Amino acid sequence: MTTTTDVDPNDVDSAAELARAIAAGELIAVFQPQVDLQTGRIAAVEALSRWDHPVLGHIGPDDYIPLAERTGAIHAIGALMLDTGCGYAEELASLGRDVDVAVNVSVAQLSSAAFYDHLETNVVVFQLRPDAVTLEITESLAILDLGAVSAHLARARRRGYGISIDDFGVGFSTMRQLDRLPVTELKIDQSLLRDDSVNGRAQMTALVAVGLERDLRVVAEGVETQHDVDRVRDLGCHRAQGFFFAKALARPAMDELLAAA
Ligand code: C2E
Ligand code: CA
Ligand code: CA
Q1: Which residues contact 47 (CB under 8 A, 6 or more apart)?
Q2: Are the C-beta atoms of residues 74 and 106 closer than 8 Å to each other?
Q3: Residue 129 phi/psi, 5° resolution?
Q4: Is the pLDDT assigned to residue 198 strictly greater than 60?
Q5: Is the pLDDT of residue 42 over 70?
Q6: Alpha-carbon span 116 to 155, nearest angstrom
Q7: What is the 3-state secondary structure (H, E, C) of 28-53?
Q8: Residue 60: CB partners within 8 Å, gap ≥ 6?
Q9: Mean pLDDT computed over 3-8
């Protein structure tokens, strides 16, 4: 019996179930395209994880990523996404298609030397340019222990990897923290695009400008309509991602979309 207060007893069973699922190969990657707003080309795919549960069907990441972060299973999931994403980019390159890959990276991974070793191994094994691989930092910058990760990230940046601030504009991300990280891309949180109030529109415009002024690639998320596409293109966003183009697709469907593009 444990007296530790920060362990949720429900986690114990769920953690065992998640570990079983990872070992059984039930965690898979699906891919969502990012479209270049100037050319209309699919410039990148973001790897998003799904739990393909034998009884419950597809379980979304919001239902197991927080648990995986608490138990450390996030390292195995992150490694799987990195391998699957890089493998896909290599396959596409062998077909003559230049498509970047983006993976979501949790804070625990960012402070792990093994994660960067794995990244380095993958670009060699899969013969990828480092700038074809973007690390999306999902967590709020405020909780990020910059001391522990900034040296790792700076090295990754010098090596040429893309570093993206995901969900930019919500939470506690501030300009000052942004300037302390070696960032190459901002992904504007989709809630900003959804907010059609005067205030919301002004915020969206300002956040895109933050990226453009710093010469960062700016990606709009949650683009659902032609109106959204026109708006984010007019604001100067470089790329867009969202249901207007495609939802996250498993491999055969994503292959077909790319072949038709
Ligand atoms: P995210 O990285 O911000 O990913 C975008 C989420 O928005 C995805 O949800 C995607 O399916 C959804 N989405 C995309 N386009 C649209 C749209 O036009 N409209 C709307 N309403 N939604 C859209 P998903 O796949 O459920 O992922 C949720 C979050 O889970 C991700 O947010 C990411 O933070 C996290 N996540 C997913 N896979 C991984 C992973 O392998 N590792 C880590 N650390 N986090 C992951
Ligand atoms: Ca993301
Ligand atoms: Ca996001």
Answers
A1: 29, 30, 31, 81, 84, 85, 88, 101, 102, 103, 104
A2: yes
A3: -75, 135
A4: yes
A5: yes
A6: 9
A7: EEEEEEEEECCCCCEEEEEEEEEEEE
A8: 50
A9: 52
CB contact at 8 A, 100 and 128: no
With a cut of 60, say whether residue 6 has pLDDT above it: no
Is the alpha carbon torsion for 144, 150, 156, 161 positive or negative?
A: positive
Q: pTM value?
A: 0.94
pLDDT in tens, 95-144: 999 999 999 999 899 989 999 999 999 999 999 999 999 999 976 666 66
For residue 60, how far is its CA from the centre of ligand 1 (angstroms)? 9
Which of 180, 177, 179 has the alpha carbon at shortest distance from 141? 177
Q: Whose CA is nearest to atom 42 of ligand 1?
A: 104
3 CA distance to ligand 1 middle (Å): 35
Q: Which ligand is the nearest neighbour of the Cα of 28?
A: 1
The DSSP bridge partners found for residue 110 are: none
